[in-house]
Amino acid sequence: MESIQWLIFLALLALGYFVGRWNERAHFKSIREREAKYAKVLAFAVRYPPDVVTPQECRLVSGSVVISSDYFKQCVAGLRTLGGGRLSSYESLLDRARREATLRMKEQAQRFGSTLIVNVKVETTTVSGGARKGLPAMEVMAYGTALKSAAPRAPAP
Amino acid sequence: MQYENRQPDETVNYSSEHPLREFAWLVFGLLGVVAIAAALIGFFAGEIASRLPFSVEKDYARRISQHWQDKPRDVAAEEARAALRAIAAKLAPVMQLPPGMEIQVHYAPDAVANAFATLGGNVVFYRGLIEKFDSEDAVAMVLAHEMAHAKLRHPAASLGRGIAVGLTLSLISVGLGEGAAGSALQTAGVLPLLSYSRRQESAADAEAMAALAAVYGHVGGARDIFDVFARLQPSSTQVTILRSHPLTAERMASIERTAAQRGWKLDGARRPLPPALARLKRARQDKP
Known about the structure:
The structure holds two protein chains of two kinds.
Chain A: H1 2-37, E1 42-43, E2 56-68, H2 71-83, H3 88-112, E3 116-126, E4 137-149
Parallel strand pairs in A: 1-3
Antiparallel strand pairs in A: 2-4, 3-4
Chain B: H1 19-51, H2 54-60, H3 62-70, H4 75-91, E1 104-108, E2 115-118, E3 122-126, H5 127-130, H6 136-151, H7 154-169, H8 174-188, H9 198-216, H10 220-231, H11 241-244, H12 249-262, H13 275-286
Parallel strand pairs in B: 1-3
Antiparallel strand pairs in B: 2-3
Helix pairs in contact in B: 1-7, 4-6, 4-13, 6-9, 6-10, 7-8, 9-12
């Protein structure tokens, strides 16, 4: 009985490691490609648009992603919490999530016809609501104000 | 002014260390910590257990004593037990047993070549081992060695250590812990599985030789049993004593060294086996 439990644990660990690693590599590859693709959509944390752009049409754009950890990352993180330190198995996960959310926001802005997003904020939350033994998944959301040059206003009478 | 969003620097936000490397560090680190904790806890539990009053140990071991006492026996077995107890009675006065400690010697009519000391001052001698010896001195050496284990409280220390290590290990895996504590608890029953460290064995050797020298005037019995052990086939499943008392050159050298230091004679006239034990041996030899 005990040995079956160990076997299941090791199988899950191996599954988490190989599938999780494959997923992470594929995701990073896709992120890098799309970052290049959306490079012309600029995102800034400043609250106001640069002075050079005057008449503007604005829209709230957001991108969110829910990303899950794998069994292997969870085990490493669990062991790490015994002694503390850098949770590097989750660092790459959150990095992927932040960049993915930003890309989705940029994609929305591009559909709107904008190439400039200001006042960009990034927020994160755990999906399980902080429950112990909850889902090892987190949401990252990026949002900001997309600006598009508006047609010049009719001069005041 | 020209604005741009550069590609992020990928070397900052997450580590490029191989995840298996980190995992290995964490796992082996944890195992190391648990091993050290188990060793420390085991050591202190052993020390504490061996300092419990002997009456506590004796009470705990009542079932063991009863088991060996009640073992079905015939006249030959009764006589053999009486002969062994007579030898033990000669040794006990010179061994300075702590007050309240009483050694109970039992005889087991099995072919296994073994003798062991377990909880409650119970010493068990198997027929298989008696048959290997030619002199009372050799029997006395083994008896004194096992009595010394009891005197030095080695069975209690071993049991305490086993249980404590088992409990510590059960923090990581219930099965693993039960295995370790279970084997210690079984030995608290009747099985001769208590294991003693080399240090404990040599302490028992030294005590036994002192008793032998005091009773017989020389420690020839110690040499005899090692000569006999050297001839035994370690691979035989019948010869369990070699597993619990590994015969090392170191152990023999230490016996000769101790004898020289204390001025004990290594040789002297051997006493013949007591008639009851000699009969056991003859009965065995007569059988085809």
